[in-house]
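Dear U.,

Please find below the material for section 3 of the report. The protein was modelled together with adenosine-5'-triphosphate; I have listed the sequence and SMILES used, followed by the predicted complex structure.
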Amino acid sequence: MIQVQELSHAFKIGKKGKEKEVPVLKGLSFSVEEGEIVSIVGRSGSGKSTLLHIMAGFLKPDTGTIQIGNVKTSNFNEVESSQFRLTHFGFIFQNFQLMPGLTAFENIELPLKLKGENKHVRRKKVTDLLQHVGLTDVQNHYPNELSGGQQQRVSIARALVTDPPIIFADEPTGSLDSETEQDILLLIQSLNQTRGITFIIITHDDTVAETADRIYRMHDGELTERGAYHAI
Ligand SMILES: Nc1ncnc2c1ncn2[C@@H]1O[C@H](COP(=O)(O)OP(=O)(O)OP(=O)(O)O)[C@@H](O)[C@H]1O
């Protein structure tokens, strides 16, 4: 479903005229099947976030191609990239990135408002998702009135509310204690199974990586597959 081929990217650093090229991705190729949980594991600075930014269309690769379904997304211009992102991708971040002035319900509802969905559809979708992620009782709480795990559940529900087929999760449990981490990983697995959503999890943590159906290890700008694990 997602095919990445021969992807390379280097950053230019230093003063104008004296720039140095720092290669980060060096011709890496890999694929993700529809409905899979894939993790990309690697040390800090190995290029995981760069790969995610390129796959999500925030950054152009120097060379290489990305194909999602039958669409070659690496050929997109900025407008096409952002339109594709809105309909195909959801994002989960380490630090949740919730709007502090909105309740849990309103945070989850926001992408639907931006999409112009009517109130009735919004209420139904948000109510269903609140139940699915176990937050019905705290739906009127603001982010600072929620635990880290609850905030991450809100951000997961927000990522899912527009029904994207692919979710990118960048260190989704990086701010959580190990018990809450397990709860969130189980939630991701349950959403993957019940809704068929593809998850791409970026992490430096082997325990998190092993939740996935398939693990890729990032090392020196290349990816190698590490086999299948089902640790939970
Ligand atoms: N905008 C940029 N300009 C120059 N160099 C960059 C830029 N972004 C990232 N880099 C460099 O590219 C390399 C890979 O960074 P990247 O953030 O992709 O790694 P990572 O594996 O996601 O790390 P972490 O786990 O710490 O987030 C690092 O050496 C970093 O310093």
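For the text of the report, you could mention the following: The pocket of adenosine-5'-triphosphate is lined by residues 11, 13, 22, 24, 42, 44-50, 204 (CB under 6 Å).

Regards,
Y.
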